[in-house]
Amino acid sequence: MSTDPFSDILKLTNAESLVTGGFTAGGAWAIRFPPPDKIKFFAVVKGHCWVRLEGEPEPIHFETGDVGLLASRRAFVLASDLDVAPVEAMSVFADAGKTMAQLGNGGDFAHIGGHVLLDPTSGRLLADALPPWIHIQASSPQATTFRWLLDQLVEERSAGLPGAQLASAQLAQLLFVQILRAHLKTAALMPAGWLRALADPRVTPALRLMHGDPGRPWHLEELAEACAMSRTTFAFHFRTVAGVAPLTYLTQWRMRFAERILREETTPVAIIGQSLGYSSESAFSNAFKRVTGHSPRSVRRSATQARSAAVK
């Protein structure tokens, strides 16, 4: 098992980032994007613009190298001048297969954008933990990494090199990870939850232990000792940042991990339960249903039916 909880959760949710297109612009321009049905990211690779996001009271100014991540279904406008009437993005990218567009002479501004695909079920674990909107500025401590990734993405999309599609996908994945890492730096502003807990160095040792060996019958004293805290202090601090007690977090992680195995593999239910520390199939099934609301066998049956329907 992994001792990197952050990677565990990204793998569990099948988070996959893709660059889908972009545009260049010159002169006065404005473009309106509809509410996305997926997590959307975009970056300014040349010039600057205003971002007017539905639900936000004030527009946001983006400079070269700034990156935005939109995790909520909100329409937004990108513009050189907010007084310009925006054109609809659907009309700009209307041509079949068109992923790049040009507004005006195209010489002042360049943008690339994409989205993040998540597993329809387990993906909620990540989607629900993200704020509606993240803005990472080029002046942030992570600026050097972002600048390199954006430059490489532009190069891969324009140079026509062998393997460009795969390279772009890998770079987009790195960009998404870097956005989340930068967001973790703002842990004090996050609501209690697993994302805030991952950013808290005081509880990280306990998270690594639980993710590294979820089937072990961990005791509160062991986890507290790993974090160099008393049992009481550890329990209080963990609940403050994670929103749940340490052993409740362990149970929830076990069930999320089990759910993925049930949906993707044919390992017997009893074996899954045993690997996660349960002495019997009934004990595991009861715990699984208590956390997820479904029995292990019903989850496996639904996944099998979905696969069968997909190949018809």
Tell the overall outline: globular
Radius of gyration: 22 Å
CATH 2nd-level architecture of the largest domain:
Sandwich
Lateral arrangement of strands in the main beta sheet: 9-1-10-3-6-11
The H-level CATH homologous superfamily of the largest domain, spelled out, is Regulatory protein AraC
Report the top-level CATH class of the largest domain: Mainly Beta
* Order of SSEs: HEEEEEEEEHEEHEHHHHHHHHHH
Largest sheet: 6 strands, mixed
Mean pLDDT level: 91
CATH fold-level label of the largest domain: Jelly Rolls
DSSP helix count?
A: 13
Estimated structural class? alpha+beta
What is the share of helical residues?
40-55%
The count of β-strands is 11
Distance between the termini: 35 Å
Low-confidence stretches: none
Strand content of the residues, in percent?
Answer: 15-25%
As for the number of domains, it is 2
